[in-house]
Design brief:
Mean pLDDT of chain A: 96
Number of strands of chain A: 11
CATH architecture of the largest domain in chain A: 3-Layer(aba) Sandwich
Number of domains of chain A: 2
Helix content of chain A: 40-55%
CATH class of the largest domain in chain A: Alpha Beta
Low-confidence stretches of chain A: none
Oligomer: homodimer
Shape of chain A: globular
Largest interface: A-B, 183 and 183 residues
Radius of gyration of chain A: 25 Å
Number of helices of chain A: 16
Strand content of chain A: 5-15%
Strand order of the largest sheet of chain A: 1-7-6-5-4-2-3
Largest sheet of chain A: 7 strands, mixed
Chain lengths: ~500, ~500
Amino acid sequence: MPDPAPASLDPEDWDAFAATAHRMVDTAIRHTRGLRDRPLWREMPAATRRLFAAPLPLVPTPLATVCDDVRDHILAYPLGNAHPRYWMWFMGASNLTGAIGDFLAAVNASNLHGGNHAARLVDDQVVRWLAEIAGFPATAAGTLVSGGSVANLIGHAVARHAFAAARGIDLRQDGVVALAPRPRVYCSAQAHGCHQKAAEVLGLGNVSLRRIPTGPDLAMDMDALGTAIAEDRRAGWAPATVVATAGTVNSGAIDPLPGIAELCRREGLWFHVDGCIGALAALAPRHRHLVAGIEAADSLALDPHKWLHAPFELGCALVRDGTALLRTFSLTPEYLKGATRGIAAGTAHHLCDLGLQTTRGFRALKLWMSLREHGANHFGALIDRNIDQARLLACRLEAAGVEVHRPVGLNIVCFRHRVPGLDAAAMQQFNREVMIGLQEEGLAAVSDTVLDGRHYLRAAIANHRTADADIDLFVDAFLRAARRRALSPAG
Amino acid sequence: MPDPAPASLDPEDWDAFAATAHRMVDTAIRHTRGLRDRPLWREMPAATRRLFAAPLPLVPTPLATVCDDVRDHILAYPLGNAHPRYWMWFMGASNLTGAIGDFLAAVNASNLHGGNHAARLVDDQVVRWLAEIAGFPATAAGTLVSGGSVANLIGHAVARHAFAAARGIDLRQDGVVALAPRPRVYCSAQAHGCHQKAAEVLGLGNVSLRRIPTGPDLAMDMDALGTAIAEDRRAGWAPATVVATAGTVNSGAIDPLPGIAELCRREGLWFHVDGCIGALAALAPRHRHLVAGIEAADSLALDPHKWLHAPFELGCALVRDGTALLRTFSLTPEYLKGATRGIAAGTAHHLCDLGLQTTRGFRALKLWMSLREHGANHFGALIDRNIDQARLLACRLEAAGVEVHRPVGLNIVCFRHRVPGLDAAAMQQFNREVMIGLQEEGLAAVSDTVLDGRHYLRAAIANHRTADADIDLFVDAFLRAARRRALSPAG
């Protein structure tokens, strides 16, 4: 006989639950407070891998045991991006206030697809704050998403819809086969892979994306862009959209935003800015001039889980003409229709009318809390500091004889240790081994990439915990590791 | 002069931070413990709306004040879905262990796009657990996403890619214009709007989606499906995919899964199941037979933030042939290339190769914790209970003379109070007013919909806190409200 009245998922013993929850808060504080004193990363032991190989648990385990496992097997083996010397893949470092925000969002439990409740208003407010940072007008609309890839996908989708609408084509009904002549989208050869993914997902195909060469600064070459557009017009394509990158992932290069804005106006093209890496520099008083021009974008992708350090996931797509966003996605079915009173009342549109999702979590809260706690000015100062630190790192490395790729873009430094007598492949292996050695020591994390056909190590500093002393510490450790490797028999 | 060394986002006073964090844990527990004793929902006061109209905060506010605001202005005005008598829009009710999971995920801070760390393994494990629940083979792959709409979008994208690949078309390169003959996708007239959104986003257009009529049970009519496929073949379409719904949002109807599976095999079509509402009934011993057939799907969308009550957002797309998922999305760029040692080492593919996102949060943890805490069997018992409660509600309403739409599908009851002498429009208004009145009283939340052209109220019971006594309490309140309204001058 099945249990006729199974208990809810609420704790059966509230005091025991409270004790465990408080213990995990203390664990979290201890974990965060001790970040600097622990290795940035370490390999997982067999017992941890075994735990994560177990099949579906059918019977209960005490919550306290589950929490011990989280502490011993999960918190103990992180990616490392919360550590002050993590400058590897481009991402933020999270923060405890944001973590409380995610906890309280789950306690609040509301679904933000729509409805008349506080979380919905906070979401609206956070989108307005981000539009304010970007310098967008009050007519803009936006939507909080999982991150930059989906934010860019949404920009591409709105651009595609606007392209069709301007030609009287019912894209949503008829699909992209109705688009004639076929639209072409331009981005730099250094643009993020998510733009290819967007072109593919949207059914335009990778062929619709034309990659424009970059200059020595790895920013889009405006002459090449102009030539490509003219060529395409002659060849029967319909130039549609230019994607400018404000901070490339490889080197932090910023495409010439005002020039592209002007070209788009002149040529009647949609101006999309991928600002996932750099747009939030608009908050930084000493460097905001670097991203001047983002405020002219028709659509802008940004990533508060990078330089605002919101715990994952928090991206945002902003669209200058808010109605264009709504027209691209709105699909309010019968059972979600608005009302003037009660839970379904409230606003002109549901949030699910602005993007891919129906159900929407309360991702806004973590950022709402930390922007209020610290104030936006403080985030601006932290961004300024990271950009300064990248320049400091470049100078220190050069002073020590390490080759640095110039110019240093925004907050990303690409560099390599040159070893006399090694060919390109051997030098790549040498630098990679030094990089991996520093990871295995748990001392620092940088990544590697290829620029102008040459292999470089790459430090992307978007980390509120990085102190200037960490730059020196890294340079010393890097040189020591390189020397050790150069002397070793395997070197 | 700017501050030369701004503080990190870590607390300056750790003890004060700890005190606030502990206080919010107590607040969260009190909030959850008191759910049943507070109104399900209430209108927000002007002060709350004012707070959420403020511009970007530039200067700091003490965290304790921010937390007070969350308590007084956000937790106090939720959507209501955590309340035991919320049966309105289809969603889960969250749970405190899941909330701790979201907190610890943010503390762990890892990005799950890839890399060699514990969170990545937990994500893999949770996907395997969900595949195990669905009865999928070990060759399956899956990806955790924001919810059902994206899970279904991913199913459609993989189906589209497989359709092209089988015909030697390079869809990712050439786009959907290369698909000739054009693919057609079938779903029931009761399918969720996200399938239209998927067809539009993927560039196939709404025209590619053919809606098949339903029988009196509101499930797909197999004869009509067969006829439509034959018609389409004659007309030059290429039938490509059948989307079966395991639990429609309107009425909980379940399309004939084994029949559709068999038809897809015979006709060489992709078999996608939208199981966002019903697939997790596979966990429920007394009702799993209702969704038999989902294990035969080529792709399956499911939503652990519904019947497993994971805090939002947690959806999942499963694909029977895991390589098909990878081939649809994988796009690993230079700077994310794998390694055999260090942070980038580990697995054959990055998680970002399996979907739309690059950055990926640790959504798996909340479910990993609560599945371990309660055991999957307990979730099965709770699902059985919700289905029983829907049947109980239908019987109680009928016994009281309320019209119930039969058959009752899964856990959704559609009903209406018939008032002699009122035409259809007046009866709709009558029922809606009763519905909104119960929301405004904070007593219960149901929604409304249209079935067979008639307006019904709709109770969708996917709530671990609902007790059988809540069914009786609702029926009494509903009848009382209806009587009151029938007697009122405005009635």
